[in-house]
Design a protein that fits this description.
By secondary structure, the protein is α+β, with helices and mostly antiparallel strands. It has 3 helices and 9 strands. The protein has a single domain, classed as Peptide Deformylase.
């Protein structure tokens, strides 16, 4: 297992939709170990494979003292009438937080390393994490979901960070 470096905004891998995992070979098992180890640090809620440079559909989470992973996740349900508007951040956009509207509840269906179905669901922070990580796997950043004025502020802050 290895704590992996996080790719940051501007890296093209973050804008590339991830490929489905077809084989659960040693490479995929190592990826899962790396995702679990890398997400297991203070202040980390979720981590998508492309954030560590791997273009495969997998992510890990670290919410309320529960750490897990899912392969080939699909966001199958979100609450359509209840939302949350809290600040959201991203390991790939370090140090910046912006108000991001997300569904209050979300459910993801995917698989584990043995090919068994995995269902992950939750409200509040877990729901935000599930939506955020599925966006990553589709080549989106939370910045894409910001209201126009907030997005302008975010892009200005990113440009200042990058110098």
């Amino acid at each position: 297992m290895a704590m992996r470096d996080i790719r940051v905004v501007g890296d093209p891998v973050l804008r590339t939709p991830c490929e489905p995992i077809r084989e659960r070979d040693a490479r995929v098992r190592a990826l899962v170990e790396d995702l679990l180890e890398t997400v297991d640090a203070d202040g980390r809620a979720g981590l998508a494979a492309n954030q560590i440079g791997v273009n495969l559909r997998a992510f890990s989470w670290n919410i309320d003292d529960e750490i897990g992973y899912v392969l080939n996740p699909r966001l199958v349900e979100v609450s359509e009438d209840e939302y949350q508007d809290g600040d959201e951040g991203c390991l790939s956009v370090p140090g910046l937080w912006f108000p991001t509207k997300r569904a209050w509840y979300a459910r993801v269906v995917g698989e584990d390393l043995d090919g068994r179905e995995v269902v992950v669901e939750g409200t509040e922070l877990m729901a935000r994490c599930l939506q955020h990580e599925c966006d990553h796997l589709d080549g989106m950043l939370f910045l894409d979901r910001l209201e126009r004025a907030e997005r302008k502020k975010a892009m200005r802050a990113i440009r200042e960070q990058l110098g």
